[in-house]
């Protein structure tokens, strides 16, 4: 059926529905990755967003089966369901071919009740978003009610919506225990930790993990505005002030929350970093890495406490891509070392974290 994407500035893009036929409203963002739509759709960091893929051909390799490994994590996806509110593409491939595919992207979207629109000039849409910045938008389908739940997007705490609600343990019995604060964690972060031989204690975003017995702290990724996570930041502050120093690593929103606990401020990027090709430089070296990213906020490095310093910077716009403490074993990355999908240039950060943990 015919469908439209209507931006808040009045711009209208016409196309056809290939997902679930329903109206939906959210923040319109763009991702320049060439592959990885399964991983991106199931990344909780996309909660509340209408995800535009700039690569023109989407759906040609279908969707893998939803199956869990013995540790309870999905084998081929980054969470238990689709979290993006909708997907916007230029050319949807109705036919798919892949050794591991069991259904089409369209079938998956319909089963999970997620709208999709194709036939959109995604390059023109991306130019609008780059010039104006990310904005709210609405997808409407011909013959279907245009009513959507009227929520003030800026007031929603998306982290609260996607975080686990109880403690979950993985690889129990390992020598070292890592508390992982779930702000919307991707499965491959957990996989990357348990394959390195540690026990992961996954706790809700607002849980006071300082009451637990653990050897290191891990701050996960998540959606929305980090300023909504005041409780999490206060818990991190207590951790940093503890005289019993333990290692800490953060990824994506984890970088922002650690930075806030260190006294820094956060600002919203004009259109964010969402791609598999973001170059970052390790500060103080000539080392540059190609990274996978998905975030709309950044740390103001100039507001960091004197005991902290930038760890990585973005080579495109100079924004912060990670911080580290000058003396204690605390560091973070704004990008995704676990990628999935994307390049694996920076997986060594997990090795560094576990090496520090085993020495502690």
From TrEMBL:
User: Where is the region CPSase?
Assistant: 1-176
- EC no.? 6.3.5.5
Biological process (GO) annotations?
'de novo' pyrimidine nucleobase biosynthetic process; 'de novo' UMP biosynthetic process; glutamine metabolic process; L-arginine biosynthetic process
Q: Where is the active site?
A: 252 (nucleophile), 336, 338
Q: What is the lineage of its organism?
A: Bacteria, Pseudomonadati, Bacteroidota, Bacteroidia, Bacteroidales
Catalytic class of the enzyme: ligase
UniProt catalytic activity: L-glutamine + H2O = L-glutamate + NH4(+); hydrogencarbonate + L-glutamine + 2 ATP + H2O = carbamoyl phosphate + L-glutamate + 2 ADP + phosphate + 2 H(+)
At the top level, the lineage of the source is Bacteria
List, for all copies, the residue spans of the domain called Carbamoyl-phosphate synthase small subunit N-terminal: 1-140
Q: Which UniProt keywords are given for this protein, alphabetically ordered?
A: Amino-acid biosynthesis, Arginine biosynthesis, ATP-binding, Glutamine amidotransferase, Ligase, Nucleotide-binding, Pyrimidine biosynthesis
Q: Where does L-glutamine bind?
A: 45, 222, 224, 253, 256, 294, 296-297
In terms of HAMAP family, this protein maps to:
CPSase_S_chain
Task: Give the family this protein belongs to, as stated in its UniProt record.
Answer: Belongs to the CarA family.
Assembly description: Composed of two chains; the small (or glutamine) chain promotes the hydrolysis of glutamine to ammonia, which is used by the large (or ammonia) chain to synthesize carbamoyl phosphate. Tetramer of heterodimers (alpha,beta)4.
Q: What is this protein called?
A: Carbamoyl phosphate synthase small chain
Q: Which GO terms describe its molecular function?
A: ATP binding; carbamoyl-phosphate synthase (glutamine-hydrolyzing) activity; glutaminase activity
Pathway in which the depicted protein is active: Amino-acid biosynthesis; L-arginine biosynthesis; carbamoyl phosphate from bicarbonate: step 1/1; Pyrimidine metabolism; UMP biosynthesis via de novo pathway; (S)-dihydroorotate from bicarbonate: step 1/3
Query: What CDD domains does the annotation carry?
Result: GATase1_CPSase (cd01744)
User: Could you tell me what this protein does?
Assistant: Small subunit of the glutamine-dependent carbamoyl phosphate synthetase (CPSase). CPSase catalyzes the formation of carbamoyl phosphate from the ammonia moiety of glutamine, carbonate, and phosphate donated by ATP, constituting the first step of 2 biosynthetic pathways, one leading to arginine and/or urea and the other to pyrimidine nucleotides. The small subunit (glutamine amidotransferase) binds and cleaves glutamine to supply the large subunit with the substrate ammonia.
- The gene it comes from is carA
């Amino acid at each position: 059926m015919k469908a439209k994407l209507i931006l808040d500035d009045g711009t209208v893009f016409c196309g056809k529905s290939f997902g679930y036929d329903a109206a939906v409203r959210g923040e319109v963002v763009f991702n320049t990755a060439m592959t990885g739509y399964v991983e991106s759709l199931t990344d909780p960091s996309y909660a509340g967003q209408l995800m535009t893929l700039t690569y023109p051909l989407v759906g040609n390799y279908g969707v893998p089966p939803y199956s869990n490994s013995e540790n309870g994590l999905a084998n081929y996806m980054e969470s238990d369901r689709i979290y993006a509110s909708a997907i916007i593409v230029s050319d949807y491939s109705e036919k798919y071919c892949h050794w591991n595919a069991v259904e089409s992207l369209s079938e998956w979207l319909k089963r999970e009740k997620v709208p999709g629109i194709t036939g959109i000039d995604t390059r023109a849409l991306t130019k609008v978003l780059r010039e104006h910045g990310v904005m709210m938008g609405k997808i409407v389908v011909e013959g279907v009610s245009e009513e959507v739940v009227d929520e003030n997007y800026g007031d929603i705490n998306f982290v609260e919506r996607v975080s686990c609600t109880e403690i979950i343990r993985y690889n129990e019995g390992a020598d070292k225990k890592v508390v992982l604060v779930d702000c919307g964690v991707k499965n491959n972060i957990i996989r990357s930790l348990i394959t390195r031989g540690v026990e992961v204690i996954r706790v809700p975003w607002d849980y006071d993990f300082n009451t637990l017995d653990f050897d290191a702290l891990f701050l996960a990724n998540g959606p929305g505005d980090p300023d909504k996570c005041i409780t999490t930041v206060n818990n991190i502050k207590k951790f940093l002030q503890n005289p019993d120093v333990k290692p800490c690593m953060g990824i994506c929103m984890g970088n922002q929350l650690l930075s806030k606990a260190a006294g820094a401020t956060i600002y919203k990027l004009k259109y964010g970093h969402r791609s598999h090709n973001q170059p970052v430089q390790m500060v103080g070296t000539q080392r540059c890495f190609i990274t996978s990213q998905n975030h709309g906020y950044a740390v103001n490095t100039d507001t960091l406490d004197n005991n902290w310093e930038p760890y990585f910077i973005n080579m495109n716009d100079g924004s912060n891509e990670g911080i580290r403490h000058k003396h204690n074993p605390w560091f973070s990355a704004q990008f995704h070392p676990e990628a999935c999908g994307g390049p694996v240039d920076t997986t060594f950060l997990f090795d560094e974290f576990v090496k520090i943990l085993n020495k502690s």
